[in-house]
Amino acid sequence: MVYRLVVIFLMLLAMCGCGQASLNGKIEKVGLLVPDTISDQVWGTKGYKGLLRIQSVYGVDVYYKEGIDNEAAIKMAVDDFQKKGVNLIFGHGSEYEKVFNRISEDYPGIHFVLVNSKAKHKNVTSIAFDGRAMGFFGGMTAAHQSKSGKLGILATHSWQPEVKGFIEGAKYVNPDILVMTDYIGQWDDSEKAVQKYEKMKKAGADVVYPAGDGYNVPVIEQIKKDGLYAIGYVSDQSELGENVVLTSTIQHVDEAYELIADEFNKGTLKGGRRVFDIQDGVIEMGEFSPVVDQAFQKKIKGLIEQYKKTGKLPEENVR
User: Is CATH 3.40.50.2300 what the domain over 27-129+254-280 is classified as, yes or no?
Assistant: First the structure.
């Protein structure tokens, strides 16, 4: 009788142990690598907030390393994370693409996550933010507010989908509007971005979209001094001047990281490209400036809700 009770007790104990483990599934410990710092209040800070969200939800240990921007440093950091028991690593930028893809097969127990990159192995996932829609609505707002009929986009790379979307949205409002586009090449080259902005200003642009998270604030500060308008990028930048920033195209990187962690924990995260859009709650438009009339705000908010439901942008007059 005693033997049977002991066996039953051990079985119940094992079942309880299994139940506890299933709460966290695959996730054990999580690591974050950033090329610069978590204290920049833009891109790096967003990644760090994502790490803290994962820690809060799953109660796991999390680690981060700053200034990891070369192959040797990345390899050392990954090796250190592995020794700590990390099995989910976020490389917060495209800088990690080549190394993560190259070393991923050497770490089969770790899932690597990239941003805006190519993922070539089953344990490598690349997060992509489909910015076309947010760019479209930003372009609509810019064209509506422009008096000169000339807009400017200061993007980092030509592949950014928000660039195409911005142009389409501007043309939707005004088919004859001129959209000047230039590329910085680096996310954080503020000096070059401000210089290119000055050229756009001289060419007549009165609304400029600095689509780079490392230089958008310095550019917007200069736009404020010049009495012109801006469309914010990545964060809600209305605090830089509600009469200057007409609206912002926001990417909630922290929420995307939590969603990725959830999929990994459930065992459903696949290698390859994982795209987020407005419907996922990861991308949205920021607050509108009071200088944007209420009738237009109501119209564009209606179009955003329509896009959420249908996944289709307005196409009339877009060229």
Answer: yes
The Cα 90–Cα 223 span in angstroms is 34
Which residues lie closer than 8 Å to 211 by C-beta, 6 or more apart?
A: 135, 153, 154, 155, 156, 160, 162, 163, 166, 233, 249
pLDDT one-digit tens code per residue, 34-83: 999 999 877 889 999 999 999 999 999 999 999 999 999 999 999 999 99
| Selection from 135, 317, 100 nearest residue 232 by Cα | 135
CATH superfamily of 132-250+289-310: Response regulator (3.40.50.2300)
How many angstroms from the chain centroid is the CA of residue 59? 24
pLDDT in tens, 185-228: 998 899 999 999 999 999 999 999 999 988 999 999 999 999 99
Q: What is the pTM of this model?
A: 0.83
Residues with Cβ < 8 Å from 296, sequence gap 6 or more?
Answer: 141, 144
3-class SS of residue 250:
strand
Q: What is the pLDDT of residue 22?
A: 31
Note the maximum CA span of the chain: 92
Span(s) in the chain for CATH 3.40.50.2300: 27-129+254-280, 132-250+289-310
In sequence order, what E strands does 134-225 have? 150-155, 178-183, 207-211
For the segment 220-259, what is each residue's pLDDT rounded down to a tens digit? 999 999 999 999 999 899 999 999 999 999 999 999 999 9
Rounded alpha-carbon distances, angstroms, from residue 294 to 137, 183, 299 = 15, 33, 9
What are the residues whose beta carbons fall under 8 Å from the beta carbon of 239, sequence distance 6 or more? none
Q: Compute and round to an integer the Cα radius of gyration of the chain.
A: 23
Residues 6+ apart with CB under 8 A from 42: 213, 214, 216, 217, 234, 235
